[in-house]
Amino acid sequence: MGDGSKLRLWCSAFACALAVLEADGYFVDITYVDSAVAKGAVCLDGSPPAYHLARGSGSGSNSWLVHFEGGGWCNNVTTCLQRSHTRLGSSKEMAKQVAFSGILSNTPDYNPDFYNWNKVRVRYCDGSSFTGDKEEVDPRTNLHYRGARVWQAVMEDLLAKGMNKAENALISGCSAGGLTSILHCDRFHRLLPAAANVKCLSDAGFFINVKDIAGVNHAAAFFSDVVKTHGSAKNLPSSCTSKLPAGMCLFPQNEVKQIQTPLFILNAAYDSWQVRNILVPGGSDPRWRSCKHDINQCSAKQLKILQGFRDHFLEAIEAQGDSPTRGLFINSCFAHCQSEIQEIWFAPGSPVLGENSKRGWGLVLRPQWVSEDGLPLPL
Asked: Would you list the DSSP string of 3-15?
């Protein structure tokens, strides 16, 4: 059987296994933080923030995992107004229950480290990775840019429900939520007891500052607009904003060195969201339309450009230097977010550490996840 056939067969098996494992997830009810409204800590549309909490048990009763969901950002009035009518901008539009699996699973076999912890999924409804805070509300749109207040209000609510006694605590997140866990890592640590063991995990949150295929710095301009729209500058680390324009401080490569709390970065070097939205944003060369959604459709020239993106990503990671308080797990999957999906998080075929190092990371993954020529592998 050829390599291509093997890969297709494995991917089919992945889809089947994923369906089975998702069925083993469990549903958790929503909690609205109604008390936050009086503080102005609200979603884009003015509705209260929300989260889902699954209580811990046994040895995990005093351990907390707070996970922030992703969903991109809005960078102007038009995109934020559109967002305010969806679950990413209004708690009125959120499902009353969500399935917990992957890092949020309550099954020891699927999630041996965190299965019995207090597990929280914080809903994302502000569009700024919880950094915005503008007092004024435009009466024409009723948009509230209050992400930083939402973050604080949710934390205060969780502290009152027992997180103030945490012995172990982990803040994590996927995509824009992964960026949240980086930006708020030290702030989260400061809220918890001095004796608590506190760490941060960013899953697919290491967005890099790279030009798109047309040579335009699309991502930097976008993040600059996000910061301006939401009034985020005052809530970004001063260690960065004192040296760089505030929009540049949404790129983790300009943040990570200053973080004091232990931080673990989980990311694909061929991050599929970044390829589709940063390297090849909407409106780019139409010849990329098939390639950026299915790498099996990429030409040799396009694969070379993708490898160039991977090199830029690894350079940005490498520039952070070595630190005893940071860890990395970088693989060659063409993927985005890996902790929320059971098959990738903890399963017989999921990525694992090997015995030897690769590019100095101390990481070698199973053969089906890493190609010797550095080409991306789809899930």
From this structure: HHHHHHHHHHHHH
Given the residues 189, 202, 336, 339, the one annotated as active site? 336
How many alpha carbons lie under 13 Å from residue 198 in its C-beta half-sphere?
A: 23
Q: Residue for token digits 């999906």? A: 341
Measured distance CA(43)–CA(23) in Å, rounded: 31
The secondary structure of 319-347 as a DSSP string is TT---TTEEEEEEEEEES--SSSHHHHSS
How many other C-beta atoms are found inside a 10 Å radius of the C-beta of residue 193? 14
271 is catalytic: yes
- Predicted model pTM: 0.88
Is 312 considered catalytic here? no
Sign of the four-CA dihedral 240, 64, 68, 106: positive
Q: Which one from 175, 181, 202, 332 is the annotated catalytic residue? A: 175
Classify 205 as helix, strand or coil: coil
Catalytic residue among 129, 271, 272, 332: 271
DSSP-assigned letter for residue 299: -
Least confident of 66-70, 73-77, 88-92, 137-141: 137-141
* Contact partners, residue 137, CB within 8 Å, separation at least 6: 46, 143, 144
